[in-house]
Each structure stands twice: as C-alpha cells, then as structure tokens.
Amino acid sequence: MATLLIVHHTPSPHCQAMFEAVVSGATDPEITGVEVVRRAALSVSASDFLDADGYVLGSPANLGSISGALKHAFDGSYYQILDSTRGRPFGLYLHGNEGTEGAQAAVDRITAGLGWTKAAEYVIASNKPDKAVLEACWELGATVAAGIMES
User: Fold this and answer.
1) Is 106 left (phi over 0), alpha (psi -120 to 50) or beta?
2) pTM above the 0.85 mark?
3) 35: β partners
4) pLDDT tens digits, 35-94
5) Nearest to residue 143, comparing CAs of 88, 70, 89?
6) What pLDDT, on a 0 to 100 scale, did the predictor assign at position 88?
7) What are the backbone dihedrals phi and psi of residue 65, each rounded to the nearest 5 degrees, phi first?
C-alpha cells in the first residue's frame, strides 16, 4: 500500500478548513491502495517522510514565509531524507493575507533541494476559503493521492 503524508500547520479556522478539504480529497473512496497519514508539522519525523510515497504540505504564510512549524519539520529531517526521497511527488496549500509569494518560494527552494516533483498546482488563498478554494484543496489531495495509487 502506498502512503500519502499530509504535513500541516493549522493554527486558524481557515487553515483547518483547507486541511479538511485536502484530507477529504485524498481519502475519496475511488482512490484505493493509499493510506493517508496526517502529521502536525511540529510532530512529523524523518521516519514519517521516509515511509511516505508522496506528500501534501500545508501552512499559513507568516511574515512572508512558511510557518515556523513547517520550517521546523524540514529542519529536523532534511539531511535524513535528502537522498532517499528524491523524485517523490508533492503538493502545497497556503493561506495568508499577504506574503504568500515568499512562502511559496520557501517551499520551492526546500523541495528543489530535496529533488521532489510538483504533482499538482498549488492552492493559495487569502481571507476565508470560499467554495472554489475548498474544491481546489479537495482536488489537490485527490490528485497527489491518485498519483501514488498502487495499480
């Protein structure tokens, strides 16, 4: 069975709504052979990254970058996962009122260093996530999960 790891930092109701939509898409009954593992960014381990076949990352955009929690997840695991996770697919969702460009750039730098492959368009939202944003989050989860689905 393939494993999708969702690493998230959800300090606000808006981030929570986006996270729940991603999980809903990733766990759609039509997607089979994929275990969805959810880890808060402050509790994820290198083993979690190593055991996964793909990733969805979620964060608020704080002061022009990703949350300290998501950065901590990579700071604590980067060298342990560097050579073993190359080529794995990932997706990203961000919520922020401003500074999302810097947060996106931070994730792009980290994932490029790891050699991960962008599997879906990023979902970036500000203000309260509307129906279109939540549908895009659902699609993000479903797309990354379907991409690692075992045949």
Assistant:
1) alpha
2) yes
3) 3
4) 999 999 999 999 999 999 999 999 999 888 999 999 999 999 999 999 999 999 999 999
5) 89
6) 98
7) -150, 180
Residue 62's pLDDT is 84
Residue 27 exposed, middle or buried by CB count within 10 Å (0-12, 13-18, 19+): middle
Report how far residue 74's alpha carbon sits from residue 72's, in angstroms, rounded to the nearest whole number: 5
Q: How many CB atoms lie within 10 A of CB 4?
A: 29
Helix (H, G, I), strand (E, B) or coil at 36: strand
CATH code at 1-141: 3.40.50.360
CA atoms within 13 A on the CB side of 122: 18
DSSP secondary structure of 9-24 = ---SHHHHHHHHHHHH
DSSP 110-132: HHHHHT-EE-S--EEE-SS--HH
Q: Report residue 7's pLDDT band, with 50, 70 and 90 as the boundaries.
A: very high
Compute the Cα dihedral for 41, 46, 47, 51 and give only its sign.
positive
Higher pLDDT, 134 or 62: 134
78 phi/psi in degrees, rounded to 5: -50, -55
What are the residue boundaries of the structural domains of the chain, listed by start? Answer: 1-141
